Amino acid sequence: ISEFDPFLKSHIEKYGNAGAGTPSYLSSKICEEFVQLMGDCVLSEIVGEVNMAKYYSISVDSTPHVSHLDQLTFILRYVSPEGHSQERFLKFLPIESHTGEVLCELVFMVLGEMNIDIANCRGQCYDNAANMSGVYKGLQA
């Protein structure tokens, strides 16, 4: 991250290996908190852009994680005020069930947490699995 921020780069160069007894604020806990704050800031910008655009489409897919956990990926597509189409990743969410009902609840939960109105959703994109695409009461249905 420091290669893109001169202030952070100078801080790391000055305090990164200062030795025992000198606080550097570069512990794993601090770094994880910093990354979380940056992620929250980016997500807030994306949500602001989506709400400014008003209409959007959602893409949801299930992917296996290396730890054998299934995750849902949430991606939104919208048009910027400049007229450029945007595609933004929102989050991964672990899932334990692949039923259409559970997936629907998760989509509504994620959009609700981000204050994105489902009524402004103009398109849905899922893989062709029955639980996503509408067959047998899938998410799209």
TrEMBL record:
The protein here is known as Uncharacterized protein
